[in-house]
Design a protein that fits this description.
Elements (H helix, E strand, L loop, with lengths): L2 H15 L6 H11 L8 H16 L9 H4 L7 H15 E4 L6 E6 L1 H13 L5 E5 L2 E6 L2 H10 L4 H49 L8 H12 L5 H8 L3 H16 L11
Antiparallel strand pairs: 1-2, 2-4, 3-4
């Protein structure tokens, strides 16, 4: 990821960690989602865990972080508690990647927990795939739309808007590049075709065969000489002809230039 993408992910995590659940049950659910993480912990998550521990202790509902996640009854939780739990789970075990313009979110945890979390996410209307990677369970979303929905439901706000704005910007840039590439290719083809047509006209004029062609063919040849940069449509409009008639006339000129005989000089349809 770029530095800007990493900064955005950090801002999103900080925004989620700063949410202060209004309900005591949400505090307990989010703390359960955090659980005990092995190894160095993100300072943002560490501060959140301390804050939630203080609130649960003050309410007489302290949670054992080492046993919280396996013991929670997610299907029985109301929607707000489910989202609080998933917010904690994301902060503790989730990662978000924006590399290459693609949005990828995954949770890494114990193998047996991954299948459970995937089932719970499906129950919450957020179906995800899961697999085992290097002995660990990995629950994954690769759809930017699903990732956005999940982050919105767990409380992301400003950072999510910035993420969506970037996705729209990338999509627009991609579409613009596609259009520009297509226009560039069309222009190159038009320039090459005009070059062939002008060369054919010069050859036919030099050997006198241009003068023997029907009026429409001579008219188109003169029009092409005067406006070599014009497209078929522009040339047709300038000459007051149908585009198909201009195309047939130019094709005839090229064929004649390649054929030194008059065999191909049949009457123009």
């Amino acid at each position: 990821m770029t530095a800007a993408d990493r900064d955005l992910v950090s801002a999103l995590r900080a925004e989620l960690a700063a949410i202060d659940p209004a309900r005591a049950c949400d505090v307990v659910s989010e703390r359960a989602g955090l659980e005990a993480a092995s190894g160095p912990r993100d300072p943002v998550v560490a501060r959140l865990a301390v804050r939630l521990d203080r609130r649960t202790a003050g309410a007489g509902t302290a949670v054992d972080p080492g046993r919280a996640a396996p013991g929670i009854d997610f299907p029985a939780l109301p929607e707000h508690c489910r989202m609080a739990y998933l917010r904690g789970r994301f902060l503790a075990r989730g990662s978000l990647s924006l590399a290459g313009g693609r949005t990828h979110l995954e949770f890494v945890m114990q193998r047996d927990e991954a299948s459970v979390l995937a089932a719970w996410l499906s129950l919450a209307g957020l179906p995800a795939s899961w697999r085992v990677r290097r002995g660990r369970g990995v629950v994954t979303w690769k759809s930017g739309e699903t990732v956005g929905l999940f982050l919105r439901r767990i409380g992301a706000g400003a950072a999510l808007l910035e993420l969506e704005a970037r996705q729209v910007s990338r999509a627009l840039r991609g579409e613009l590049n596609r259009v520009l590439n297509a226009e560039s290719a069309n222009l190159q083809r038009s320039v090459a075709a005009a070059g062939r047509q002008l060369a054919a006209i010069e050859r036919l004029d030099a050997d006198g065969r241009l003068a023997t062609q029907p009026y429409v063919v001579r008219l188109v040849a003169e029009g092409r000489r005067e406006t070599p940069e014009a497209t078929l449509t522009e040339l047709a409009e300038r000459l007051g002809l149908h585009r198909s008639a201009v195309q047939r006339a130019l094709d005839r000129l090229e064929r004649l230039a390649l054929d030194e005989t008059e065999a191909s000089a049949a009457p123009l349809a």
